[in-house]
Amino acid sequence: MKKTNNLTKQIGSFWAHYSYIVVMLVIMVVYAITISANGSSFRWSHITAILSSQNTCIIGTMAIGMALVVLTGQIDLSIGSSLVFTTSACIVVFNMTNSILAMIAAALIVGGILGLINGALVGLAKMPPFIATMGTMLIYRSLSLSVVRSMDTAISGSTSSQFAMLRSNSKYDFLRFSFGTGKILSIPYITLVFLLMVLLFIFVTKKTKYGKSIYAVGSNEKAAHLSGINTTFIKVSVYVVTGLLVGVASVLQACKLGNITPASSGKSYEMYAIAAIVLGGISMAGGKGNLLGVIFGALSYTTVNFIIVSIPSLTVDIQDTFQGLVLIIVILIQTLSPVLKEKAQIAKRRRLAESGK
Question: Rounded to an integer, what distance in angstroms lies between the CA atom of residue 300 and that of residue 110?
Answer without folding.
Answer: 30
